[in-house]
Amino acid sequence: MTQRDQLSQKTGVKKTSPKYGAQVTLQYKTFIKRTMVEALQNAFSLYDDETLERTKIGPNYQTTSVDFPNIVVKFYEQRLQNAGVSHREYGNVHALESLKGKGFLDAAKGEITQLPITSLFYPGSTKVKAIGIPKGTYVTEVVSNSAIKLSQRPTTTGLEEIVFEDVWVPKFFEYHHFLYHGDIALEIYGKTSTDRDKISDAIIEVINMGVVGEEGETFQNRLYHTQADAEFPYSSWHFPVVNTDLMQGYGETAGLASWMPEDVLVYKAEYRVPVMGEFYSITPETTEGALTLLERVDLYPWTPEDSTTPAPDEFPEGIIPPEDYIPVTHLHPQGEPKPYEGGEQWVFTAETKHPVSVSVALGATLTPVLK
Question: Quick one: which of 109, 107, 151, 102 has its CA closest to 130?
Fold first, then answer.
């Protein structure tokens, strides 16, 4: 799959869940365009119409005949401003840490008293270590601002140096909050005026009158009902609002097709709809199996037709020896697709900041795509 095709999926063929690569910066324009692209793709895939099903939607201009008709999604920003004068906001992230301090061990009650603070201890999670405390002891109850109850009674009574593990300590960080408004531009291209006009009709129905049909409903859902959804990690920090009551048309034109024939025209129309929103300078943290950047790919060349190379499941316990992999640590510069010749099927593991194992059939290219 080429980078162009990855960003401009054909609708109405096969529905797949979005797959996002990590982006080390905040997501402003990338989020707005991707959200509109996916919202329109969801809506168009529900139409039982050949023209709308084969319409490609994405942020890139198409240059080959097979990619028409299509919609190019653009964003014309008009204003970008801080949420207030020198405005900054602060949040906190709880981190597991260890704390040391003195407390009085009470063997009779199974408690520790005379503690300077207890609000950071979590019953069932915070572990306690000290001379006179059995191994594996943890906090079961916060009795007061200076006392806690333990899962096991201390073997001694008296003032001791104590270590508390897995204490949830709040850590504050600064972030920025910005507002914006502008226009979403939808450039419609068709090989016939009928295709162009039919797509125009669908755009107006989905965006301006979408509340009365399932196509418009799925468009609205992608815009507004994805916050805190694991599939859309940046939706918790970016909130676009499309003014579906207003739309401006920018006329109809025709011009020579981009694949350079002398007597073939493409037909264009453009609509713009106001959008406003807000976003934060926060990038979702990556965890194992979540968003992360590729650092290395180990490839094992194998095809079912190849009788000389062992299939992956022929190895003991299905584990391919590390020395049989071909390491690839340098992707093609500037994020361009890196082709692998021969059209073999490859099984590979991808090493990232958090290890991830992946299997894939590479018929054309492997492309790192930032979404």
Answer: 102
* Rounded Cα gap, residues 142 and 138, in angstroms: 11
Q: Which of 280, 307, 329 is the last residue of a domain?
A: 280
Q: Quote the pLDDT of residue 370.
A: 31
> What's the confidence (pLDDT) of residue 95?
66
Q: Are residues 167 and 180 in the same domain?
A: no
Give residue 296's pLDDT band: very low, low, confident or very high (50, 70, 90): low
What total number of domains does the chain contain?
A: 3
Helices (runs of H) and strands (runs of E) counted in the chain: 5, 18
Q: Helical H runs in 155-260?
A: 193-208, 214-224
Range of the domain at 312: 296-366
- The tokens of 5 are what? 């095709």
pLDDT at 111: 93
- Same domain? For 219 and 120 the reply is no
pLDDT score recorded for residue 14: 44
Residue 25's H or E segment, with its range, is none
Distance (Å, whole) CA 299 – CA 330 = 13
Place of tokens 């409903």: 217
